[in-house]
Write a structure and sequence with these properties.
The protein is mainly alpha-helical. It contains five helices and two strands; from the N terminus they run αααββαα. It has a two-stranded antiparallel ribbon. α1 crosses α3 and α2 packs across α3.
């Protein structure tokens, strides 16, 4: 797992995003446990509280469940349904962006260019 202090994205969100992607891509299967909170915190050299916050976010999203004394277990789910829910969120945000772009006088091409720039910055 890779985190960046300079990305501007909170560390717990970076962790949650990477684990979410691994779960939805099937790299971490349902029924598997996530790495221990303490172990991941030690590996990433971050606080246990930060790791716990990431895991709690995944639990709130319904991707994992806490098992007393054992850690966080990936829940059985329809990954396609979860991906569809995220697609709907993307569509809602893009609709909002289109509405905001109109009074700014941005063309679709300018918006696409902006999106590409943002995407390339995310990979840094």
């Amino acid at each position: 797992m890779k985190i960046s202090q300079e990305s501007g994205v909170p560390i717990y969100q970076q962790i949650a995003t990477q684990l979410r992607n691994e779960i939805l891509d099937g790299k971490i299967a349902s029924g598997e446990f996530l790495p221990s909170i303490r172990g991941l915190a030690k590996e990433l050299k971050i606080s246990v509280i930060t790791t716990m916050k990431a895991y709690e976010l995944l639990e709130k999203e319904g991707l994992v469940t806490a098992v007393q004394g054992k850690g966080f277990l990936v829940r059985q789910q329809d990954c396609e349904m979860v991906k569809e829910q995220y697609r709907r969120k993307v569509e809602a945000h893009l609709t909002e962006a289109l509405l905001a772009a109109k009074p700014a006088g941005m063309t679709l091409e300018e918006m696409i260019t902006t999106l590409r720039i943002l995407e390339s910055e995310k990979g840094e």
